């Protein structure tokens, strides 16, 4: 108990000393007014003036002279210890610490009396101490204001007596760490443990912060979706974040006219304990299929639970006939009510197709929007069409579908246009290598500066590539030395040397097309600069015969696909040495074919991504696509670009043709891409439900036309049945 009191006393006196320094604030002294009760019982007031050293020159002695018992106690405490401390100053030069110590001793010994019967705790301590504490509190406020204007500094990490790091963080270090991590999102926890000067490496603080975020978001979702009907649209896609497969889910509520983020789900590898008991034996025999698809659907179900919904909520409601009719069943329309009944010949009973008391506005409906992949669509098709089917409508992401059409069409071509796309990606990402460090970009700039300082427009290197650069840019070759020199000077402003250019990812908004635009006209110029460091000229000045890269890849890896062959070449030669060899007349010709034929698909989808920003914009887009057949505009534009538009067909003219087979490549890719996009667009827009999207039009005539179309199709379906 005494040890605790000693620590408390030390803490109090230390805080008062710091606060007193703040109270001085450049002043020579600080004045405090206190009261005591004298030996005759009268209240006596006095002003204590403390110097910058914390000493009171005579004021405390003059005040205490009115209490002889107080003077005696002061002198007694100068000779005796209490809690490991005694009064060290004379009464005439009393220090601030000694005055607080003296008053504290009186309060702790409230029964102490002077010879004249005076109660010192009541007459001195209870009168003076509150006023001194009030002043000390004001000093501490001033200290707090001063400290708040200073920059936070890291404090030592807390340790136990044994020297081990404590799990509890200091509040100051926590604030500093939060400030440093304010821009970190994905790698927040990993970044936190690197600040070992602020937090122990094994701390669970960052993990708990993430858990708190999840709980707060979960509570907000439950409050947001409280009482919501079982009708929601979810757009979802799993991807790799920080080495883990994470399912990201966004939702939209028509009921609330608002969107939301469901809780992200970690798609951990499935274990036997996750399976039903009836499947354990099959799993151990390694005969289970579609596990990845099941895992994604399971993750989607967990995301539904975060908005207080479950897969079972979307089962077909009892009494609703949502299945193919059997051989002895017929649909019967009752004209007086307009309702459809299912008549059974065997039982001679009729049941309503939709229960009589059922309100279609409350029917459970889940719309799933995801990319068209072999993993998720196999599982989604099962949920839609199996006997255990749900009230589920699956919609393909149109952006993924468009790129898949482009990729599949390129793979069908005999000129290996897909290989060309992979080679273009390698070229465009050269500035970001190696391993994302961008060191190659600075090496390229240094190489360009060295080339411009050592070469001239009259040199052999420029003469070798001048005509090819002009052919690529579709401009006339210079006829005079001044024109050639001006063209040579333009090398200092090559876009892909001045800037890194867009980072290319095959599925990133058609970024390969963006890269082609960024490098437009600079391919052969880039090859010229990169080859300036390589010894590609023989002793007599003749070009050394080299085996074409594609032929070399086919000879070394005949059974591997284009991606594997290109990776093998990159591994053997290195990206830096491989890049200039990829730039050939054939590659430029194929690039022009890709940009000409795929221009409409790329431009329209990029415009849609920029233009459609709200659910209302998306709704109007589908209404116009169904009512005005605007979905066919992409096909019309593709035909125009590929067949008769002058500005997109320059690469086919004999004057600018870089390869004799470019016309055949152009027609072949156009045929495949037009076929693929036509099939995808008609399957998306010409089948229910988007076929009748103009039912939602605000124009009465458009909505009426959609209603008549839907009724006619339904009548034809019933007749065929």
Task: Report on this structure.
With 721 residues, the chain is of the alpha+beta class. The chain folds into five domains: 2-148, no CATH class; 212-315 and 364-396, no CATH class; 329-362, no CATH class; 403-588, no CATH class; 600-720, no CATH class. The chain is 50% helix and 11% strand. A hairpin with a 4-residue loop joins strand 10 (339-344) and strand 11 (349-352). Helix 13 (417-428) packs across helix 23 (585-597), helix 23 (585-597) packs parallel to helix 27 (662-685) and helix 24 runs antiparallel to helix 26. The longest helix has 29 residues, at 120-148. It is flat. The chain starts with a helix and ends with a helix.
Lay out the secondary structure:
Layout: H1 2-24, E1 29-37, E2 43-51, E3 55-57, H2 59-64, H3 68-79, E4 93-95, H4 96-108, H5 120-148, H6 171-180, H7 188-193, H8 205-224, E5 231-241, E6 244-253, E7 258-261, E8 265-266, H9 280-284, H10 291-305, E9 329-334, E10 339-344, E11 349-352, E12 365-370, H11 374-385, E13 392-396, H12 398-412, H13 417-428, H14 439-454, H15 460-473, H16 481-489, H17 495-498, H18 511-518, H19 523-531, H20 549-556, H21 562-573, H22 575-582, H23 585-597, H24 599-611, H25 615-627, H26 633-643, H27 662-685, H28 700-720
Helix pairs in contact: 1-4, 1-5, 4-5, 10-11, 12-27, 13-23, 15-19, 19-22, 20-21, 21-22, 23-27, 24-26, 26-27
């Amino acid at each position: 108990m005494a040890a605790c009191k000693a620590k408390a006393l030390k803490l109090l006196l230390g805080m008062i000393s710091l606060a007193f320094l703040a109270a001085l604030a450049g002043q020579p002294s600080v004045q405090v007014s206190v009261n005591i009760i004298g030996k005759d019982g009268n209240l006596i007031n006095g002003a204590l003036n403390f110097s910058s050293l914390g000493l009171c020159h005579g004021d405390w002695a003059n005040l205490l002279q009115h209490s002889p018992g107080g003077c005696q106690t002061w002198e007694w405490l100068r000779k005796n210890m209490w809690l490991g401390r005694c009064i060290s100053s004379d009464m005439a030069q009393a220090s601030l610490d000694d005055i607080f110590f003296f008053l504290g001793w009186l309060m702790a010994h409230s029964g102490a009396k002077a010879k004249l019967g005076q109660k010192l705790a009541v007459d001195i301590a209870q009168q003076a101490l509150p006023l001194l504490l009030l002043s000390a509190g004001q000093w501490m406020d001033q200290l707090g204001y001063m400290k708040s204007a200073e920059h936070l500094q890291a404090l030592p990490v807390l340790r136990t007596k044994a020297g081990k790091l404590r799990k509890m963080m200091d509040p100051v270090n926590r604030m500093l760490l939060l400030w440093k991590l304010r821009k970190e999102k994905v790698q927040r926890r990993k970044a936190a443990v690197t600040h070992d000067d602020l937090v122990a490496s094994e701390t669970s603080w960052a993990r708990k912060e993430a858990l708190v975020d999840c709980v707060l978001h979960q509570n907000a979702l439950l409050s947001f979706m409280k009482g919501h009907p079982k009708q929601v649209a979810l757009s979802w896609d799993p991807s790799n974040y920080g080495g883990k497969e994470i399912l990201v889910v966004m939702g939209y509520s028509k009921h609330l006219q608002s969107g939301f983020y469901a809780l992200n789900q970690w798609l951990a590898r499935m274990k036997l304990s996750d399976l039903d008991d009836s499947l354990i034996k099959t799993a151990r025999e390694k005969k289970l299929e579609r596990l990845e698809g099941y895992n994604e659907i399971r993750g989607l179900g967990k995301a539904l639970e975060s908005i207080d919904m479950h897969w079972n909520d979307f089962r077909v409601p009892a009494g609703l006939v949502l299945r193919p009719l059997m051989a002895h069943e017929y649909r019967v329309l009752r004209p007086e009510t307009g309702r459809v009944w299912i008549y059974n010949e065997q039982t001679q009973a009729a049941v309503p197709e939709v229960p009589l008391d059922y309100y279609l506005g409350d029917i459970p409906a889940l719309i799933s929007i995801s990319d068209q992949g072999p993993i998720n669509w196999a599982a989604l098709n099962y949920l839609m069409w199996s006997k255990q089917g749900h009230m589920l409508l699956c919609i393909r992401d149109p952006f993924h579908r468009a790129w898949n059409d482009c990729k599949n069409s390129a793979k069908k071509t005999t000129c290996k246009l897909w290989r060309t796309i992979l080679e273009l990606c390698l070229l465009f990402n050269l500035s970001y290598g190696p391993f994302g460090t961008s060191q190659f970009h600075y090496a390229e700039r240094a190489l360009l500066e060295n080339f411009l300082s050592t070469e001239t427009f009259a040199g052999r290197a420029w003469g070798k590539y001048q005509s090819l650069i002009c052919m690529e840019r579709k401009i006339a070759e210079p006829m005079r030395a001044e024109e050639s020199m001006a063209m040579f000077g333009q090398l200092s402003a090559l876009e892909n040397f001045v800037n890194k250019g867009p980072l290319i990812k095959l599925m990133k908004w058609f970024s390969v097309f963006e890269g082609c635009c960024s490098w437009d006209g600079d391919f052969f110029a880039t090859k010229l600069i990169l080859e300036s460091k390589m010894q590609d000229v023989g002793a007599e000045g003749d070009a050394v015969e080299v085996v074409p890269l594609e032929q070399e890849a086919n000879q070394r890896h005949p059974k591997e696909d284009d991606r594997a062959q290109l990776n093998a070449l990159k591994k053997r030669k290195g990206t830096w040495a491989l890049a200039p060899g990829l730039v050939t007349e054939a590659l430029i010709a194929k690039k022009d074919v890709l940009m000409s034929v795929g221009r409409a698909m790329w431009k329209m989808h990029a415009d849609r991504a920029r233009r459609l920003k709200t659910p209302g914009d998306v709704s109007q887009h589908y209404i116009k696509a169904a009512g005005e057949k605007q979905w066919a505009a992409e096909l019309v534009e593709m035909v125009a670009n590929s067949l008769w538009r002058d500005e997109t067909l320059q690469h086919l003219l004999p004057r600018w043709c870089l390869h004799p087979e470019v016309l055949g490549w152009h027609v072949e890719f156009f045929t495949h891409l037009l076929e693929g996009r036509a099939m995808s667009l008609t399957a998306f827009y010409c089948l229910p439900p988007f076929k009748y999207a103009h039912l939602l039009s605000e124009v009465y005539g458009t909505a009426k036309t959609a209603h008549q179309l839907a009724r006619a199709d339904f009548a034809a379906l019933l007749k065929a049945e």
